[in-house]
């Protein structure tokens, strides 16, 4: 009985311990971060009841409601890439109304939870700007209406159900509407704009039925430039075409009157061109002159009066109405890392509602936008808070002279990703630091005990999980022997670099690159690519790795280039070159100098190659391989594929020792009337192939392994459009495997009745691509494997033993290869955004395809399902080899989703990074969200899992030993008693 009681206690203890560990291990192997992107427009919702929130729309086409207290996301909706949000507002106090797709789609979202209430499609005749007006009550057929202008049409839409009450075509009148104005307690609507011949147009429309009451048009001799600024409900201000005259436009009752004032009369010493800011200020306008803002008040009679000139203003908010008809607006001035916020009265310039300064991290850059909101303090006076958008796309809330919270929403627009190893742990130095006092240590153990006894609350479990994450091995800032801990270096659209720790996704450092900031020499900088620049190995303790950031000063192919070199450990910008020659292609070369800097050849728009680093040692290394450096270029616009080789130094008149000329080796021109290039894919340069041989049903095939093979897909011109825009008989998809050294086409295959878009991934000797089959009305995935027949004779064991084989013979692209291909196609039920493949350190582990689906999740699909040798009835030898019986569709198992129940909203790319442990690959997926995890495609065959409970194993062994000992004693006693009988 004692033994049974002991074993029962042991089982209960093990089960309870396992349950507690299971509950608080969430997030130990992966992490997920949610963002919204750079904020464009905001609407504050601060009713007395409920939590205060702000609804925002962003450049990533996200609508979100944020908690004003902590900055957390209440809810969000991510629209499509092409569904750009134009306007946003709140109506009836319970609906968020959004206008998107150039004024074509109007939606209402439930304010508390973000669920869509209704959706209306507004058709039009011609593209135009989009305007949204949501007044309180129009007295129309239904209680409230929304007025929308888009695509040349003016629509009145019901707030209740989205029904279109009436519409009016204004495109035929040749007017570009700038503003919709509804005077209070009036049944009339003013549509104001500028016509084709720079005449001011005013339409007076009956809100109830859309009847045109009056149309006035008056031409302004000087013409207009820029936008119209609406100062009051009956007056607008514009700039003339020269940018030196302010024009006040009065449109009371549809009667148009102009008044001109030269800016030089308002501001002494004015010269140059002024810019009218789009901010909506009550009773005044803001004119930007150089770095200063000129605030001009519009009087009742239409005359203009200069109120003040404020220097170094970075942003101005719209006017805010609060109690007793008072209006205020905010302006931001910035001095280095100090932000000065001033809230002024729109009625009395000398009245300051608020004036305070806040220290902000200089790595956030300049302030781009500011939005203000009021609240009631405890003493019943009015206070103000400011929501500001920074240059790095981060979002900050300022209140009572401090930054209440901030969001790093620049991470929602990642352009490129690379990785860096962490520093090694130095001997004799303790990396872990004591972060908790004795009281906190005891508190943590008490919480763990409560979790073990299943008495912990959800808050206690969250605290335990946080403590485990902080003290876990994965959070250290040194590299581990398995290679799980790394730095993810990401470049964002704002020109900022972030270093994320793979353990928990925290930001280790961030740097707003000077090279990618707007300047006089570079008006519109943008980042392009990230490349490892220096990767130390032999003296890893003395040298820090660095990365190369590549960008340009514009979107044209001949725009000046930008190069920046950044320390991967500290985030310091070591050096940068801007502007330099144009950049069309970056070729990492397989050579390093004595400092382990990797050589790069950068190709400009004229076809010249520029060598970096610009040192004599690098030139010496490059000269030795001068005739062996090839590359290719794909010109999608001209349907051209070309191969190039470096020949010699540039001409003497260029006077650049690091410049090299190239010559064209070959070209493939696809006839424009029959084929259009739509997709290309190549192997990763860093991919490792474990073996060239593949055993196939008691035979051996040799993979055609070459880093110079390009996958290219073309379609017929009629099939360029969206899916379904062409009939199957007129649609062809062609795929090519091309050797980029010689231009030789190794394989060509056609798919009749198929259409793009095509997503492809190339690995080892196979390529998988995804497309749409118009005949079957389903998506398909095809696989092509290519084998080297020139090594097919190496099957005699005696020849292999005696060395009479050609396996070690050098492979040259100029020797005509004898290749064989195998292919197969399968149906696939999902739309695909991107495809990647797992990569491991030695290439031994089985491959998995990582498919980014239209649902913004990542699906892992075993490569064996895309084996071209699958048959309906595989032989016994094929079954032993692992061949799966053929089915027409690829399986999608719920447990195969890498992201589980999570979504990576706006998924753009999937990056795989090999760990030092051969069984494991690291996966990073990014879009609006970030997701990171570890995968073991063939299970963790070479290690125990990280969450393996060694203490429980030891306890179990000790318990079993004790049980054996007790049982042995009990058996001896029983045997002795039997003998005495």
Describe this structure in words.
A six-stranded antiparallel β-sheet has the order 43-44-45-48-47-46, with helices on one face. Strands 26, 27, 28, 29 and 30 form a five-stranded antiparallel β-sheet that branches. Strands 1-64-63-62 form a four-stranded antiparallel β-sheet, with no helix packed on it. It has eight helices and 64 strands. α1 runs antiparallel to α8 (950-980) and α3 (438-452) packs across α4. Mean pLDDT is 85; it is low at 5-26 and 428-437. The relative contact order is 0.06. With 981 residues, the chain is mostly beta strands.
Offer a quick outline of the entry:
It contains eight helices and 64 strands.
Main beta sheet strand tally, sense and closure = 6 strands, antiparallel
End-to-end Cα distance, whole Å, is 23 Å
- Globally, the shape reads globular
Name the strands of the widest sheet in spatial order.
Answer: 43-44-45-48-47-46
- Helix tally equals 8
Multimeric state of these chains?
single chain
Strand portion, in percent?
Answer: 35-45%
Which regions contain 5 or more consecutive residues with pLDDT less than 50?
Answer: 5-26, 428-437
Question: What's the β-strand tally?
Answer: 64
Helical proportion, percent range: 10-25%
Provide the structure class.
mainly beta
List the helices and strands and how they pair.
Elements: H1 2-23, E1 31-33, E2 39-45, E3 53-58, E4 62-67, E5 73-78, E6 85-91, E7 95-100, E8 105-110, E9 116-121, E10 131-133, E11 145-150, E12 153-158, E13 164-169, E14 175-181, E15 188-195, E16 199-206, E17 212-219, E18 224-232, E19 235-240, E20 245-250, E21 257-262, H2 263-266, E22 275-276, E23 284-289, E24 292-298, E25 304-311, E26 313-316, E27 320-321, E28 327-335, E29 338-345, E30 352-359, E31 367-376, E32 382-390, E33 395-399, E34 402-407, E35 414-421, H3 438-452, H4 458-471, E36 486-492, E37 496-501, E38 507-512, E39 526-534, E40 546-552, E41 560-567, E42 573-582, E43 585-592, E44 598-603, E45 609-612, H5 616-624, E46 630-635, E47 640-649, E48 659-669, E49 676-682, E50 693-696, E51 699-702, E52 709-715, E53 732-739, E54 745-752, E55 754-763, E56 766-773, E57 778-788, H6 797-802, E58 819-828, E59 832-837, E60 848-853, E61 858-862, H7 876-881, E62 909-914, E63 921-926, E64 930-935, H8 950-980
Antiparallel strand pairs: 1-64, 2-3, 3-4, 4-5, 6-7, 7-8, 8-9, 10-11, 11-12, 12-13, 14-15, 15-16, 16-17, 18-19, 19-20, 20-21, 22-23, 23-24, 24-25, 26-28, 27-28, 28-29, 29-30, 31-32, 32-33, 33-34, 35-36, 36-37, 37-38, 39-40, 40-41, 41-42, 43-44, 44-45, 45-48, 46-47, 47-48, 49-52, 50-51, 52-53, ...
Helix pairs in contact: 1-8, 3-4
